Every structure is written in C-alpha cells, then in structure tokens.
Amino acid sequence: ARSLKKRLTRTKNIQVGDLTTQLKRCLTTFDITMLGVGHMIGAGIYVLTGAVIKNTSGPAIIGSFFLCGVAATLSALCYAEFGARFPKAGSAYTYVYVGCGELWAFIIGWNIVLEHMLHAAAVARTWSGYVDVLTNGYISNTTISTIGTLAECLNPFSPNPFSLQKGSLLGSYPDIIAVLVIVIGAGFVALGSKAATNFNTFFTTCNLVVISFVVIYGSTFVDFKNWEGLAPDGIHSRFMPYGVDGMLAGAAACFFAFVGFDGLATAGEEAKNPSKSIPHATYISMVIVTTAYILMSAILSLMIPFEQVHPSSAFADAFSFVGSPWAKYVVAAGSLCGITTSLFGALFSLPRCVYSMADDGLIFSWWAKVNAKTQTPFNAVLSFSAMSAIFALLFDVEALVNFLSIGTLLAYSIVSASLVILRYQPAPISPQEPHLKDHGGRLRVRIPGLSPIIDRMEPGDSVLYSLIFMIFCFTCFGALISSSFYSTAVGLILLAMSVIGGIGSLIFIDMHYQNTQELAFKVFLVPYLPTASLLINILMMCHLGVMTWIRLTIWMIIGFAIYLIYGIKHSKMEVSGAEKFTKSSTYDSVVIASRLPDSV
User: Fold this and answer.
1) pLDDT at 511 over 90
2) pLDDT-derived band of residue 193, with 50, 70 and 90 as boundaries?
C-alpha cells in the first residue's frame, strides 16, 4: 500500500535548465495571444449568447459573463504562474505533474483531452449548422435525402427505425460537413506551428473586426427600456427575469465560451520564451475576450427584448428586428471566422496535451512520436482528430456542450489548489546550495496546543489538510445554494458552518510562510485569489445538471482503469526510476528558466 501511494504521488522532475524539446520553438507572445483569443471567441459568442439570454438569464447575461470572466481570469493567473514555473507543454497536466503528483496529473490530463475533443466536435457541428441556416437548410436536407437520418443509418433493416428524441446524445443526421471541417483544420495543424498560427491570426483578426462592427453599429439601436420594468411573469425585473439563480446558471452555461485559455499553455514547448510569453499572452487574451463578451451581450439585450431573442442566430435576427437586415451578412462572416478559429484552437491544443501524456508514458508512446519535417506530434494529430470527427459525425451539439464545462471547471479548480500547495512548499535558498531550504510551509505564529503537532509534520502538510477541508466546506456551501436547502432551519445552520469552516481554513493557511522562490510572474494575494477561483468554480459546478455529473463519473472510471492497468506501469517515472531525483532539481531549473530574456 505504501509503494502504491508513493507511485500515485510521485512528481515529475525537470533537470537544471531543461528547456529542450523535440518541437520547434518559433511562437512569439503575439502568436500565443491570438491563439488564445481565437480559441475563446468563437461558437460561444455567436451561438451560446442567444440561447442563454432567452432561456436562462435574460439581460443579466452580462453578469453571467462577468462572473465567468472573473473565474476564468483568476484561473488564468494561476496558469500564468505555472507557465513561469514550468515552461513545458501539456497545459495543467504538466503543471500538476511537476507540482503535485502523477495521479492528479492524469486526472487533469484525461479531462483536458476529452475537453478538447468534445470542443472540436461541438464547434465543427456548430460551423456546419450555421452554414446550413445561411443556405436555408440545404446541407441538412441534402444529407437526409441522400444518406438518410442518423436513425436510419444506424438501424437500416428495421421497418420502423428508432426515433431520436429531444435531448438525445445523437444528432438528427450524420454531419459530413463537420467531419470535413475537422479534417481540413487538422491538416493545417499538422503542417507546423508557425503556419498554423498564421492561419489562426488571420481569421481571429477578421473576427475582431466584425465584433467591433457589431458593438459600434449595434450601439446606435440600443433601447434602455429593454432593461427597465418588470418581466412578463410580473415578479422579476426585465434585467434579471430569471433571478440570481438564473444568472448563476447562465454563468455555468457560459463558461463553455471561456474554454480555451488553458490551451495557451500547450504552446509552452513551442514558445521562444515560455516563462514570459505564456503568462503575458494568458492575461492579455483574457482581458480582450471578457470585454468582447460583455459588450456583445449588452448590445444584444439592449437592441431587442430578451423574450424575442433568437436562440441560435441572435445577432443576425436582432439586426433584422431593428431594420438593418444587410448587417446579418457581416455577422455571418464574423461568425464563421470566429467558429473557425475556435475549432482550430481546440485542434491545436488537443495533440499537444496527448503528446505530453504519451511522452511521460501514461498513455501509449506511439502518440509521442514527432514528425521530423514539420516537428509536430503527427500521430496524435491524426488519431485524436479522427476521434473528434467521429463525435462530430454522430453526436448532438447540445449534448457535447453540456459535457464540456464540468471537466474544464474541475481542471481549473485543481490548478488553483495546486498553486496554493506549491506556494507553501519549502524552496532552496539559492541554486548553489539546494540542500538549504527556506521557511515555506512553516507557521509564522505559535498556536498553543497546535504548533507542536504541526512542527512534527513535513513543511506544507498542514496547508494541504486545511485546503482539503476548505474545498469540502465550499462544496457543501455550493450544494446548499444550488438545491435551495439553505432556506430551511437545518440548511441555514449547515450553511453557517460551511462559511465559518471555509473562512477559518483560509485564515489558517495564510498563517504559514510562503516560499521565497523567484519567478518571472507570480500571482498576487495568495492564498486569497486562488481561493476565490476555487469558490467560484465550485459554485458553478454545483449548478450543473445531474446527468453531467453522471457522465463525468463514467468518464473518470474509464480513465482510472486505463491508468491503473497501463499508465502506472509504463510511466517514465516507473521505468527510469526518476523518483530518485529531489525536488531541488525542479526548483533550480525553474529559477534559471524564469530569468531567461524575453524574445517576442
């Protein structure tokens, strides 16, 4: 049992100054920023906004996007510090592997691979659906008349093929166009990083121009009466017709729109100076994206009453509503550019996360092979783009999107928690004397009766236990809020206990010394900002549906089976005995990497 625990918690070690890679270092801060913006501003802003305004939050969607933006920005800051600490590819997967251990790394990596696969499939189906709307249903009608419905394709011999009910996982027809879009996008990704990012930059620029047009031209049609008075139910205001719960539920749904900034970190092994480029690109792209989402949703809800917003083609329909039908063609062009860059971002990030996991031996090493000419993980591009294409061919967009948010929020939460853990681990005082450690993880004050117990622990262990208890309190708090059980007497008592426990744990963590390690970028107000990120993420996860949690549980069971049967035995840490290295080697390499000059 002790040996198994050691294998599950072993951390990946990076040797001093290790920035070597099989991939080509050719990306600048600008390239990575545009990659992040393109990944995030896509299907969410054009397709998701209308449905959320009409059915979930109303004009309060600007609050939903603001909440998402705050949560994503807090998580992005945590990612940025990890990018400065560990300038290697693989996103949160590598960060947590180096900082917290192999099991947590596999959990995050497994979720991120699914996230990018489903994201690519959902966006590809959205691209196809948008073109179908612009052509008045030509694509869907032609596919059904030529091939048949998906029900008929899957059950051709039955005289009464099963019907696909609303809410089914499967789409209404096999989406051939979505498959072709993924194949073309994967082709550009396989050509190489620089060619791929140039392609992305062009379409992202076109999309930002269209967004500026919508905000500037749409502002000439705003009517603040759409935010005033009472909603049709006569109870809530028009600005918040579904109440605070609706705004929170809208935030949980809108978080799909922010899926993608974690993909910036996957470019770490192809950035010229990842320790500076990744943090800078992360927070610049987050500011651009959050501002664009809030402005776009505000303009839409001021142009047209929320109950009249079209759920799937909101902006085009809004311009027709105010008497400018020609503008819908500009919106259509921006939509296709935005959806294309969002698809490309997912396809770019997916094989790089797979490459990192395969290179570490946690999944099949065949996926870690790099093409000698293009210097890209070609096998990973081919295999996982094909899987995304299968998802796009068969599954419904709504089913794909609903499964995206929870895995992403889980990954972001683990990164925020990992940052707190790393800040309270002892670090070498200087690279020349790695055996001499600072006071990281030790109490700053003496607590009668408790200090002797903590002194016998390893530095940072008391912070870890407090963090676990704090997450438990936050989860109880979120469950009580989302279920409305807090309105009962027992629920109110439990709510108060959760709040007191969470605040008490936070204060106890802050009573410890942080390590003095120097980095190119460090999150400020630790542990408060990572804790705020944790709380918001957990609140949003608690507002997701039961079926989403069930699907996540099934996916994680499959992942644990793969890891325990294959990954734990084939891990490089297992094969090479790398666990013999000490943490000091990692800290040395981080200090050296963080001091490299920036090349933009």
Assistant:
1) yes
2) low
Rounded to an integer, what distance in angstroms lies between the CA atom of residue 82 and that of residue 429? 20
Least confidently predicted of 23-37, 48-62, 518-532: 23-37
pLDDT digits (tens, 9 = 90+) for 212-263: 999 999 999 999 998 988 887 777 788 888 888 888 888 877 776 777 666 6
Q: In the structure encoding, which two tokens stand for residue 79, read together?
A: 């990612």
> Is the pLDDT assigned to residue 501 strictly greater than 90?
yes
Alpha helix segments (H runs only) across 545-594: 546-562, 568-570, 572-576, 583-594
Radius of gyration of the chain (CA): 24
b/e burial code for range 134-151 (CB count within 10 A of at least 16 → b): beeeebbeebbeeeebbb
Residue 17: per-residue pLDDT: 43
Whether 214 contacts 220, CB under 8 Å: no
* Sequence letter at residue 457: M
Between the CA of residue 105 and those of 99, 531, 535, 559, what are the distances in Å?
9, 20, 21, 12
Is the distance from CB of 111 to CB of 411 less than 8 angstroms? Answer: yes
Q: Is the distance from CB of 441 to CB of 460 less than 8 angstroms? A: yes
User: For 123, what's the count of Cα atoms within 13 Å in the CB-facing half-sphere?
Assistant: 38
| CA–CA distance, 140 with 232 (Å, rounded to integer) | 35
Give the pLDDT of residue 321.
86
Kindly report the number of other CB atoms within 10 A of residue 291's CB atom: 14
Rounded Cα distance between 586 and 590, Å, is 6
Residues contacting residue 492 through CB under 8 Å, at least 6 positions apart = 486
**Cα–Cα dist 151/162, whole Å:** 6
Q: How far is CA 445 from the centre of its chain?
A: 38
| Sequence-separated (6 or more) residues with CB below 8 Å from residue 287 | 73
Query: Which one, of 291, 289, 288, 296, lies nearest residue 222 by Cα?
Result: 296
Cβ atoms within 10 Å, residue 47: 27
* Of the listed ranges 79-93, 96-110, 349-363, the one predicted with least confidence: 79-93
**Cβ of 347: how many Cβ atoms within 10 Å?**
30
CB-facing half-sphere around the CA of 266: CA atoms within 13 A: 28
